């Protein structure tokens, strides 16, 4: 690919192509975000046009377009990389893509199943280095990989709950389509640890993610104008609480351990948390395992690239006290997007009270055909990305290589390092 073509793919059309300057003082400083939906800004709204693999900017194509469209990378103006207080940084570049996988770092996303029509993120990184001195790179990677994806895990738990709530055991099974994989939900039982990711899958995902991050670091060391940059590896936080507020325990004297609890199902959907209580502990172990994976990748990279300025940013407690259905007024005041499906006009359906099982089936079948109708579900919202931006600012401001970010009971974000 030509340099000019790479510049177009990164959205840098209109600049003069050429080799990176040997004088870093001649280049403006940049912060770059790479990875998946937790980095791109999924759920935060204000999505910007994204250049496709041919370098043509793609605006919103609508709720009936193919989900492979580059726009559905959902790069938000409210993403943490955009709102963080980063002293000394003049320009920010969001190269992350919702649904991004380790594969997509060195390869076009479209080269794999369910990928999007965008260039490899490393090619986009090279384009940024043509015009900017890259001082900070934020990487969030690993929750989607060739073994499992965050979307499939979320669909598994939410789909099982909705199915259990609406369909009695004596009734003919009406398959609810998983809105990520397009496959019927196989069970109405709460999710277990192995339903989300087995130990073998986590080990494979760690190796896959480490290989991709190593590719990024090698290229960054090659193309950065002055060779001085900080790379922050951020892990993940869970949108759901360790347990629900009392309001979401039961409705009309039925808990989620009973058969067919539609009123409770509708209440949890309205609150943004359609999941069994028994799924919450496995869900938190899953997100903790993702944190362990990112920390493991960080450790490997410090060994493989001993001269690089690397940091591990732990954000697992960044949403404490403001997760979905953690308070009775959820989803108000939360830091995550509720599970929501849109109608054909793109308006969110906020209540499914009174829906029968056929209504539910049609509703979630739309997500199979047009994933963008529920793509934002269970991601950080704009307020959540503002919190994550504070976490990133803390990781940028310190020279320490391990940073922890936690939300306090008064809502303040506390960043500590070691």
TrEMBL record:
Signal in keyword set: yes
Superkingdom assignment: Bacteria
Keywords, comma-separated and alphabetical: Signal
Signal peptide (from-to): 1-25
Xref: SUPFAM superfamilies: SGNH hydrolase
InterPro entries: SGNH_hydro_sf
Name of the protein this chain belongs to: GDSL-like lipase/acylhydrolase family protein
Gene source species: Ilumatobacter fluminis
Source taxonomy: Bacteria, Bacillati, Actinomycetota, Acidimicrobiia, Acidimicrobiales
